[in-house]
Amino acid sequence: MWKQFLSKLPRKSSKSDASPGSAHSHSSNNVATSLNGNPIQRTSSGNVVPSRSTTVKRTTSAIFPSSVVTSIEPLLSFKDVSNSDKQNLFISKLKLCCIVFDFSDPNKYSSEKDLKRQTLLDLIDYVDAGCSRFTEPMISASCQMFASNLFRAFLSNTRTSSGGGETEEEEPLFEPAWSHLQLVYDLLLKFIESSSLDAKLAKKYVDHSFILRLLHLFDSEDPRERDCLKTILHRIYGKFMVHRPFIRKAVSNIFYQFVFETDRHNGIAELLEVFGSVVSGFALPLKEEHKIFLWRVLIPLHKPKSLGVYLQQLTYCVIQFVEKEPKLASSVINGLLRFWPVTNSQKEVMFLSELEEVLEATNAVELQKCLIPLFRRIGFCINSSHFQVAERALFLWNNDHVISLVSQNRQAIIPLMLPALERNIQSHWNQTVLNSTQNVKKMLFEMDEELFLACESKFEEEEMKRMIEEEKRRMTWERLETTATFNPVTENIAVLVRSAIASPIAAALS
Questions:
Q1: With contact defined as beta carbons under 8 Å apart, do 354 and 311 qualify?
Q2: Which of 173, 181, 193, 336 is least surrounded by CB atoms within 10 angstroms?
Q3: How many beta carbons lie within 10 A of that of residue 106, not counting itself?
Q4: Which residues share a beta bridge with 42?
Q5: Quick count: other Cβ atoms within 10 Å of Cβ 464?
């Protein structure tokens, strides 16, 4: 009966066990004897688990102090015990919730699962009420319960990576045990947020090991779990100031591994969303550590092909840096140019979108530091045969701040942009791109008519020279083909081409 199941929980010998029938007689009918007949054993870390190896699917590697001995029946309600006994009842309920069930079979241990769910709800209500401060035994038991239920190893991800687009995300896999996990996460969140929790006392248990295992869970396939983790990590970062440098370093290591080793992680977007709030809270002037995070972590995150999954969060983090310290704008732009996806049109459109946001936060002084390579790259994008790339590059000229920057630096920008515009007008296949090109050309003409005409004249001269060079090259190849025709090579004999033959042709062209 249920008494056998509860007898496995730690008890003080000085007090007799409370009878489940006297406390909650209606519960005994819904609970099978000792997990449906399976004996209960305790792991080395103090967690209570069913002895059958197939029952427990999750693994826990957290190490906590030895279990706290309690003497209160866990099925009791908090309102049915005195205030002095509520601490022991809280710990008893936590110990009961350390048991982890197998959810691969929904009909297995259904009554026990319902009991655990109700117990978790009771714990949530108690923590939410904030009646008393958490003692060290309560904190220890809470962290042990969180570790037993949450910390687990994920199966290796064998699914193929998507093409990197925002609309090409794989279908998420949902955690079958979410009905329990969600409540455990809710309890952890309320536990961290509670004003009854002393951070100085709790940091002994919410330590570096606990945080590392929590960060490991961000690789979960279930987006609901990652969303809970995002909020919890943000609260831990805010409450445990002593752990802030460690959290930044640990998350940076996750990003390094993702960019330079695995190229796959499910929680990059959520981690970046947390760091968006972290970066917005950085004090000025920015520390060198924070600038290194921008250069070595955020900028290289533009490299993976799955950029589209977390582009929005990444752009927000980058813009936060530029807005806080405008002198970083040129470094950010040079970083984007360094990782520019010349063979991936879809990513190129994403880069152009982010570039526009960066330019909106850039002043004229910083733009001059990267002006030539930047607008040369924009010119290449305008000439792209992929109409979306060309159209997005031309769309930059609809931004008032970008136009202002161009106007201030028109002496350098118009000579760079005019050739790209003229080539588009001559040869681009897409009518929308042609219309946009004409509009931009008209805009530059109105900006500085004299400079525009001078650049147009220079472009025509250069085009003439280019055509002459192409004609020379064509005639040289024709001469080589003619020579080869009249002097067939039957063996491995070198053919000498005399330069005297080409002199009349070169003279005629000149």
A1: yes
A2: 173
A3: 10
A4: 48
A5: 10
- Closest by alpha carbon to 117, among 131, 134, 100, 137? 100
Topology (CATH) of 1-156+164-239: Leucine-rich Repeat Variant (1.25.10)
Q: Which uninterrupted H or E stretch holds 358?
A: helix 345-360
Spacing of C-alpha 281 from chain mean position: 19
pTM of the predicted structure, to 2 decimals: 0.77
Q: Where are the domains of the chain?
A: 1-156+164-239, 462-487+494-510
The string of DSSP codes covering 147-197 is: HHHH--PPPPP-SPP--S-TT-PPPPPPPTTHHHHHHHHHHHHHHHH-TT-
Give every CB contact of residue 120 below 8 A, 6+ residues apart in sequence: 97, 180, 183, 184, 187
The DSSP letter of residue 42 is E
**Could you tell me which of 419, 347, 433 has the C-alpha nearest to residue 379?**
419
C-alpha separations of 298 from 247, 314, 451, 454 in Å = 16, 7, 39, 42
pLDDT in tens, 211-233: 999 999 999 999 999 999 999 99
71 within 8 A of 89, measured Cβ to Cβ:
no
Nearest to 122 by CA among 83, 76, 81: 76
User: How many other CB atoms sit within 10 Å of the CB of residue 403?
Assistant: 14
From CA 250, how far away is CA 364, in angstroms rounded? 37
**Side chain identity, residue 248:** R
